[in-house]
Amino acid sequence: MSEPQPGRRRLSRRSAVLVVLGGGALLLASTALPWATAPARSAVATSTVSVTGSTGAALVPSAALVVLAAGLAMALAGRVARVVAALAVALGGGLAGVGVIELLGDPEPAVRAAVGQDTGMTELAGAAEVTAWPVVALVLAVLLLLVGVVLPFRMGAWDRVGQRYERDQASAPAAGSTRQRISDWDALSRGEDPSDPEDR
Question: Which of 74, 84, 187, 197 stands the most exposed, by the fewest C-beta atoms within 10 Å?
Fold first, then answer.
């Protein structure tokens, strides 16, 4: 059998879990930052209103929580459940991407709602502008989607490694059995019969 090519090495469970949890955590953290801003005019002054990702794209933090839960399940579950968890990661990434794209396509409704909450008015004094954070969130969402799609094909080696470890453990002699054989050998060297209870 030929050796596997370096480009086809399996991803370890630890690496996969860290990637998923890290990506989900970064995606969730990004929603606490301002995603869109716009000038708003109240009765007395004009100010800049900002909208966070969790306010302007509520679907994204929910999707990030799905990814985090799937990452935890992947760390603890069996093979079938791990595949389901990987698909949940892909689903979470896809939903997050949809939420980000909706805000990027038209940030004005989210900013207008924030203006209504902050100033009591719904009139903007200028166009709404998006920051760099929704773009970062979109990149994370796409990466999580790809990771979730690829993982089911990369986690096959996890079971084999665990089974090989269990076989090695089962084939290794028990410590008590080893000590018993040494004790029997010592008894024979003294001219005693280790099978005779009176010599023990």
Answer: 197
81 within 8 A of 73, measured Cβ to Cβ: yes
pLDDT of residue 139: 97
Contact 31, 137 (CB under 8 A): yes
Cβ-in-10-Å burial (0-12, 13-18, 19+) of 67 comes to buried
Q: Are 116 and 41 in contact (CB under 8 A)?
A: no
Our separate counts of H helices and E strands in the chain read 8, 3
**Contact between residue 16 and residue 83 where contact means Cβ atoms under 8 Å apart:** no
Tens of pLDDT, residue by residue over 157-173, are: 565 444 444 455 555 55
Residue % of the chain over a pLDDT of 70 = 66
pTM of the model: 0.70
Q: Of the candidates 38, 59, 27, 43, which has an alpha carbon nearest to the alpha carbon of residue 139?
A: 27
